[in-house]
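Section 3.1: Structural characterization of target chains.
Under the original work plan, the team committed to producing a structural model for every single-chain target entering the pipeline before any wet-lab resources were allocated. The record below documents one such target. The sequence was received from the expression subgroup and is listed exactly as submitted; it comprises 305 residues.
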Amino acid sequence: MTIPAFYPIGTPGQPWGDAERAQWLSRQVVHRSYEADVVRAIEGLGARFDVVEYGRLDYGSDSYPLLTLRSRDWRDELPVALVTGGVHGYETSGVHGALRFLERNAAAYAGRANLLVAPCVSPWAYERIHRWNINAIDPNRSFRDNSPAEESAALMRLVAPIDNRVLVHIDLHETTDSDESEFRPALAARDGKPFEPGGIPDGFYVVDDSAAPQPEFQQAVIAAVAEVTHIAPADGNGEIIGSPVVAPGVINYPLRQLGLCAGITDARYKTTTEVYPDSPRATPEQCNQAQAVAVCAAIDYALAH
């Protein structure tokens, strides 16, 4: 039986080796600048926050500082709110939503919470508008001991000293049409598995932790974002991306078991946001604002409870 090809790299049914990974890498092109878009924005916030370089990616001739911003009035007795964006570099609103939160909303939490924000965890992928890092590894399946992804390992080292003080963690993501046209086929090809077409949810949704769900917290985020953009409905099977919808716009994943960024701490409140920038009903402005609103709603709920 001949297995039809579905991706231009590799042999169907066979996982990639070094040659296929090199071929994949040769196809990656820089589309935008981490320095211009992100580093300069972070530098512009330096008067209000402490900017810390928590690692550096040296990928061939490219070198990327991994930057985080933290409250200038950091007080050890206060709870920590952790915000991460750009774990998947192509998910633009995660990066710019985190920066928007810092620019427009963060001052409201002075003296109430310590903020630690990593706006762009994966700068190499940000520039290439890609999901993976240079080694064709998904950082958001790599938050575990001995991580194969430098991006993930660096963030885990940053957070480890304050793990037990993080009250809330908001990890900002997008679901895009390119998930179905490029990234899921590439994943199947890389792993030598058949590609099974799926659907793309039209709207915003969140992912709770199935190991320690906080349904009221998730609904507070959904309610706030619904004022900005539409919430993704369940599909005909009552699911979103193959997972049962447990409440409007909410699904559950075993975050730590899957090596997902939102599972890197023991925070009581944690969520992964997902916006849909390719929807005809949403604009980039709405998506960035939805992310910032989600961050505020998550921190507000956590501090109130």
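DSSP finds eight helices and ten strands in the chain.
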